[in-house]
Amino acid sequence: MSAPGQLLPSWRPGAARTAVLGFLDDVLTLPVPERLACFDNDGTLWCERPSYVQLDFFLDALRRRVHDDPSVGQRPEFAAVLSGDRAAVAEMGLPRIGLALTSLFEGLAPEDFTRLVRDFMAEATNTALGRRHREATYLPMLELVAELRRREVSIALVSGGGTEFVRAVSQDLYGVPPESVVGTLIEYDYARDDRGRPSLRRSARVVGAGNEGAAKVATIQTQLGRRPCLAAGNSGGDREMLEWVAVGDGPHLSLLVDHDDPDREMAYVSRGETVADTEPIVEVGARLGWTVVSMRRDWAQVFAPPPDDGRR
């Protein structure tokens, strides 16, 4: 383990860092099988603005498809997205738009979809930050993940994004294996090819509902099988997960990231995309006694310096 003075070097002294350090000590009192930490991804481990990374991936695929076949762009959902017609997008609703974009990959083998995601992530850039998406992960959170792992805490990603999209990059970015990623699931179709060999292909059907709100708690139980002792999130879509952890027995930590740094990242109120936010999540966290992390006050550094790989 790191020496006390070397722990979380990108975290400034304050109540948030003190709470996190206290938990890192207390978690050692738990039996190892009970040490599980669940992290949201968008806005918690990597930047989600000015648009979600997976949405950028979908739009890139849509533009490529329309370039090859302009008629694809005439589908109402695609036309609204490509034209930036927010009123039309709002009227259709995120689930309908999401399913339409998901259909772009219908029929792909899982391995082919993973390859497409990794190819996109190798080059795609966050336009607001001027850095690749893969370089827009939060350094203080990566430090926390590393310290948890040193204490034999299992790390899982619990995302509202597509499970397979996050799985394609989770090992590389966070050291989290695909089987420890819980997200919105797409159904697969099993079939046999012309030579009778079994194959698996993506459908455009979602298993259940999107993985936000109460669904996150249910999927943690059904897919991971145990209550986490730490949950970290940033929006109303993470509320139930953080509430669930906060009422657990033994050491626990509910960690909420507040995006309040307009200079180094962005300043905005995080909201769940498919849940009704009746109260700003930062106010919820303060009222319920969660550890609310201010990017502006609590993080000395938000992102790691980009590698000098000749790309800039």
A few lines on this structure:
This protein is of the alpha/beta class and 312 residues long.
Walk me through the structure:
Strand 2 and strand 3 form a beta hairpin. The chain has helices at 15-26, 53-68, 76-83, 86-92, 94-102, 110-123, 139-150, 163-174, 214-224, 239-246, 281-288, 295-298, and strands at residues 36-39, 125-126, 131-132, 154-162, 181-184, 186-192, 198-206, 230-233, 253-258, 291-294. The mean pLDDT is 94. Helix content is 39%, strand content 16%. Helix 6 (110-123) packs across helix 8. The chain is an alpha/beta fold and 312 residues long. A six-stranded parallel β-sheet has the order 5-4-1-8-9-10, sandwiched between helices. The chain has a two-stranded antiparallel sheet with strand order 2-3. Strands 6-7 form a two-stranded antiparallel sheet. The longest helix is centred in the N-terminal third of the chain and has 16 residues, at 53-68.
Placed side by side, the strands forming the largest sheet appear as 5-4-1-8-9-10
pLDDT below 50 for ≥5 consecutive residues: which ranges?
A: none
Q: N-to-C SSE series?
A: HEHHHHHEEHEHEEEHEHEHEH
Amino- and carboxy-terminal Cα gap: 35 Å
Principal-axis shape equals: globular
Question: What is the topology?
Answer:
Layout: H1 15-26, E1 36-39, H2 53-68, H3 76-83, H4 86-92, H5 94-102, H6 110-123, E2 125-126, E3 131-132, H7 139-150, E4 154-162, H8 163-174, E5 181-184, E6 186-192, E7 198-206, H9 214-224, E8 230-233, H10 239-246, E9 253-258, H11 281-288, E10 291-294, H12 295-298
Helix pairs in contact: 6-8
